């Protein structure tokens, strides 16, 4: 049964988080598991919620909007973790509690304006580019504190902290150590912006070792995704 599969995946991920915390001498209570449910049916999200998961992540607006509206009665925090175009902001602000991919001033302005219009308070993480590939999104580390200031000053938004995806082909521990430095620079100016969203199925241990507070896990929880066609 699907529920048993998901329960087993969840137990395994929780065990990996516990071990990573032990190795890093951290309290597992500091880590929030975000179940990344992209490409999965709403029913999987419902099962996760029944199993006690409270945070879910999606990366494509169309799919996320449908699920979030269908499951609006569940006690879930919705995280938008994908690259965000300004023409999707209106839709995303309608359901997302936290947007992990804020990486440019234009987007800050657009999300703020829409949050005010809809009367919502939207959490924003500044996505940090840990390599030089602009195609994957993220602000350059040097630009992050300035963007964080803009989020903190914008109406309708609260600054959560930072997010990153480890670059391909580099030791994720080294990359996440750079992310932690950026996070600390932000926290010096904004002490409550303590979120560090880092770590996926393949690198959660390195992320936890480097201060992650939120890990975004899809495959290890729900199984491998079919590659989707765009
Ligand atoms: C898909 C995705 C994840 C989850 O990746 P897995 O390797 O399946 O755990 C995490 N973060 C982002 C931004 C994603 O797009």
UniProtKB/TrEMBL annotation:
It comes from the Bacteria. Keywords: Pyridoxal phosphate. Its cofactor is pyridoxal 5'-phosphate. The modification N6-(pyridoxal phosphate)lysine is found at residue 38. Pfam families: Ala_racemase_N. One of its GO terms (molecular function) is pyridoxal phosphate binding. Residues 15-224 form the Alanine racemase N-terminal domain. Pyridoxal 5'-phosphate (PLP)-binding protein, which is involved in PLP homeostasis. NCBIfam families: YggS family pyridoxal phosphate-dependent enzyme. HAMAP family: PLP_homeostasis (MF_02087). Belongs to the pyridoxal phosphate-binding protein YggS/PROSC family. PANTHER family: PROLINE SYNTHETASE CO-TRANSCRIBED BACTERIAL HOMOLOG PROTEIN (PTHR10146), PYRIDOXAL PHOSPHATE HOMEOSTASIS PROTEIN (PTHR10146:SF14). This is Pyridoxal phosphate homeostasis protein.
